[in-house]
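FIELD: query
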Amino acid sequence: MKKVVLAGGTGFIGRYMEERCKELGYTVHIISRQEPHISWENKDRMIEALDGAELLVNLAGKSVNCRYNETNKRAIMLSRTSTTNQLGEAVQACEHPPKMWINSSTATIYRHAEDRPMTEEAGEIGSGFSVDVARSWEEAFFSFDLPKTRQAALRIAIVLGPGGGVMTPYRNLVKYGLGGPQGSGRQRFSWIHLEDLFGIIMFLNERPELNGVFNCAAPNPVQNDELMAALRRAANVGFGLPAPEWLLELGAKVIRTETELVLKSRWVLPERLERAGYTFLFLKLDKSLQSILSS
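FIELD: result
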């Protein structure tokens, strides 16, 4: 049987991928810190799972939905670079290494952009902690010489889907009348539907000529005020109080997160994927939200 290995595969995206891969007839092996899955500490079992696999997808990494103190910053960085290095060493040890290795990255690698969109070729890398994490993550991934394994890093935008991710907090904001513009409301919101993220992974797996870095974002990003209005429409809520930056800063401290998650302008376009012929299932935000909230 065809074999897929999902590293860090117990989260919101990983659970969906496991279900879809099994529907397609794959045997799925999961590497995780959660039992009963393959432990990150068990290198022999990792190698055994990876040997002969068609596809390895690495989704591992501590959530960035936390305060960026030194402890959390170190954990965020190491949870990405260390696991990527472990996987690279395990792939090198395989007699029959995976044909394809897809590693998560993040669209946050680009600078705050309200003036123009960021593509793979013309995008400008930003600065700051989140960007440092993304750059180190990709550097660790591409540092391995793997002649038998094709590699692709996915700079993933905000993933929208039922049953987890950002939809739960956004739905609660709208429900309690707090679904107005956040900050200036002009910052761009690049997003991708969970189903398209899976579709992109399968598309890349089937196209042996494709490798390198890919922006994983729907072709039609919106401004934050448009996002919040779309959420209100989808939830049939007519009004939402705006949240100025000072209030967001205060709220972020209370719930122990960072305002960067909503205030950074992520304006990212999937130029390479569209050029290669990937057809998005969810092009418009309204259709995506209707699909998610009705499921």
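FIELD: remark
The beta strands are 3-7, 27-31, 55-58, 100-106, 150-156, 158-160, 188-189, 191-193, 212-216, 222-223.
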